[in-house]
Amino acid sequence: MMSAVKFDVSYSAAAQLASLAPAEKSALRRLFASGEIENPVTTRPTDDGRFVSRLGSKRVLWRRLSTDGRPEILSIVDKSFAQA
């Protein structure tokens, strides 16, 4: 399913990813493929070295794997949940 995409998905985020609508999955692929994750309007660092990126009404929590620098998605939540 996501093998050609240049990011990993944690076990805990796999179900969240599977529940995304096809358009959201496409947007997620574009987010990580385009370098948009480096844009400060789209992505913000957290205090513990992870990152939060906007994906429409969702927020994607991710980190860079130290072994190869590839992003690993940790969680995908609705914007309203992320603000709580």
Explain what this protein looks like in three dimensions.
This protein has 84 residues and is α+β, with helices and mostly antiparallel strands. It is built from 3 helices and 5 strands. Strands 1-5-4-3-2 form a 5-stranded mixed sheet.
Number of strands: 5
Mean pLDDT: 84
Contiguous uncertain segments of 5+ residues: none
Number of helices: 3
Radius of gyration over C-alpha positions, nearest whole angstrom: 12 Å
Encode the helix/strand succession as letters.
EHHEEEEH
What is the strand arrangement across the widest sheet? 1-5-4-3-2
Shape: globular
Largest sheet: 5 strands, mixed
Summarize the structure.
Helices cover 30% and strands 30% of the residues. Strand 3 and strand 4 form a beta hairpin.
Q: Could you outline the blueprint of secondary structure elements for this entry?
A:
Layout lengths: L7 E2 L1 H8 L3 H12 L9 E3 L5 E5 L2 E7 L6 E8 H5 L1
Parallel strand pairs: 1-5
Antiparallel strand pairs: 2-3, 3-4, 4-5
Task: Quickly list its features.
84 residues, alpha+beta, five-stranded mixed sheet, 30% helix
